[in-house]
Structure formats: structure tokens, C-alpha cells
Amino acid sequence: MSIITVATTKGGAGKTTLGRLILALLAMRGFKVAAIDADYNHTLTDWVTTAAKHPITVHHELDETKIVPLVSELHNTHDFVLIDTAGAASQATIFALGCADLVLVPISPSSADIVEGIKTINLINSASMMLKREVPARVVLTAVQPGTNIADHIENEVAKAKLPVLKTRLNRLVAFQEMSFTGIAPTSGPAGHQASNFLDDLAALGGLPESIKIAS
Amino acid sequence: MAKKDLASVTTDLSALAAMMPTQRAAPAPQPIAVEPTALKVVSTPATAAKAEPLTQFSFGLRKDLRKQLGRLADDADMTMRAFVLNALKDKGLDVRADDLLDLRKDRH
User: Fold this and answer.
1) Number of domains in chain A
2) Nearest to B6 among A68, A188, A189 (CB)
3) CB-based contact (8 Å) between B63 and chain A?
């Protein structure tokens, strides 16, 4: 059983896109997956109920007092739980960070994404200190356009801020955008290749169910 | 370092959480009296565009620019059409997600 929380205090950085990708990839491999949507926009909930093609349990829950009990409940009945948070710091986000085996912090190519990404990593570090254990976290660079000045600049800024970055970058690819309509995770082409590498990275960090680690 | 224990998360993080806003629903605000004219529904450009048929659009550009555009679109795994529209979206063009779909074939 593994729990991944996707968080950044900036909206539009790719949190729900990452969530969709992980849930679809695991569900299509036959894992029993669940999601807690703690974002008031309930985009992930809408996607699960209207587009997702494989079974995914989803709960839209904004009440911070219910996040930890819900995670505990799903912990016993599912192989994997993903928590998608709102694009702002909130009490629900703090408890979602505390429940995680791994926190993913998406950063898309913008200055505000880097600023809020740094704030989120600092928030995770504060939570780690209070929990007296490390909450592993990685920045995920999303909507990357390789070979452009902005892509190079983002890489430099992230390195300068010493943020822990996931090895796999997710490019701005049509297949990732289409997922929001089709519900199907890419399995071939450049997007399929990146998705597979992304999953391998998560497995290596202990963010996925045990059998995925063996398979990869 | 301690081991993860979900039961202690709420207690351990309550002080940090207390510094953050809650997402719990606030009491419903009192309804505000509005003049009937303020409730008039108008068609938004997005709604109007939905019903619009597609139209052809073309323009000439230097061969080298065309090459660069093709390369950038390839790098982004996008059609040139989607790539250009996406760039114009940043400039304020009302581009919707379905405008960026590749209409030629399934690219998965």
C-alpha cells in the first residue's frame, strides 16, 4: 500500500494531470486504486466519473478533519491512494502531506510555479520536522518544451534553488492533454515512453505498490 | 527519524495546520437582492464559438521559419496548428482544450 500526495500552492502547475496519469497507469495494470480529491474545483473527481476507463475509487473531500481518517480507511482496502490537493496552502494540504509516502510537486514553465514550488518544498520540510520523520518529496517538471530557452531557464532555476527533482521530465505532449478527454493513459510514442519512465522513478522512490517495484 | 504512523499525523501536524486556512464550507451567504436586469444571460464568446463551423486559414512565411516551427512543434509532440494556437492562447486568444486536439489521426 502506498500513498502519493500531489501538492503545490500554485494552481495550474499540473497537479491533476499528474494525478490522472498515475491513477490511469496503475488502474490499467490491475491495481486497486483510490483517489482523494481535496481540491474545491473537483477536476479529478469529474475526470474519474466521466472519462476514466478503468476502475478508480474517488472521494471529493475538502474537510481537513476527514482527510486522515479517509486515508486510513482506503489504506486497508486499496493498493494505492493518491491525494490531489488545492492550488493553495490549506489545512487539508498539510494533513495530506503528512499521510504521504511520497509528495510530488509539479512545476510548469513559469516563474510563479518555481516560487510556489519552493514554498511547497519548505512546507513539506516543516511537516517533516514536526512528524520527526522525512516526508520524501520530488519536484516534477511538467509541460516541458525541450530545446527552448524557457526549458533551460527552468532547469537552471530549479538547480539554483536546490530543489529535489524527479529524473523524468514530462513534456507538453498532446497525449497527456488528450487524457483529460479520453481517460486513457498513453502507452506508446513519446508520451508512453515518458509515462513508463515516470512510473519507474516513482517505484524507485517507494511511492508505488510492492509488485510494481518488482516488475520494474 | 520516526516511522510513518497515520494515527499520529493529525496530532503532530495540528500546530502547522492551524496556521493555514480551512477549506470547510463557510455558512451560506445571505442572498443579495439583484435587479432583474443584472441577471440577464448573454451568450459568451466561448459558447458562440462552440457552434461555429471550422474555417480554413493559411499564411506564407519564410522557409527557415517554417522549418523552425516544424521542429518546435515536433519537440512538443504537437501539430503545428496546435502549437501556434497554444502560443496565441498565451497572448489572449480564446483557445479551448478541444481546439488543440489533433484532428488528423489518433496519435497515441
Assistant:
1) 1
2) A68
3) no
Summarised one tens digit per residue, pLDDT across range A46-63 is: 999 999 999 999 999 999
DSSP A165: B
CA distance A120 to A149: 25
Contacts of A74 in chain B (CB under 8 A): none
Domain presence at residue B91: yes
Q: Which residue has the cell 482496502?
A: A77
In terms of C-beta density within 10 A (0-12 exposed, 13-18 middle, 19 or more buried), how is residue A104 classed? buried
- Residue in A closest to B73 by C-alpha: A145
Query: What is the pLDDT, as a whole number, of residue B39?
Result: 43
Residue written as grid cell 499528474: A18
Q: Which candidate from B3, B20, B108 shows the least CB-CB separation from A90?
A: B20
**What is the CATH number for A120?**
3.40.50.300
How far is A28 from chain B, CA to nearest CA, in Å?
15
CA distance A116 to chain B (A): 15
Q: How far is B19 from chain A (nearest CA, A)?
A: 8
- The parent domain of residue A176 ranges over 2-215
With DSSP H G I counted as helix, E B as strand and the rest as coil, what are the percentages for chain B, rounded to 5?
A: 45, 0, 55
Least confident residue range of A107-116, A156-165, B49-58: B49-58
Least confident stretch, A80-89, A92-101, B27-36: B27-36
Please give the ipTM for the structure prediction: 0.84
CB-based contact B23 A91, cutoff 8 Å: yes
Number of domains forming the structure of chain B: 1
- Tell me: the pLDDT tens digits for B68-105? 999 888 888 888 888 898 888 877 888 887 787 776 65
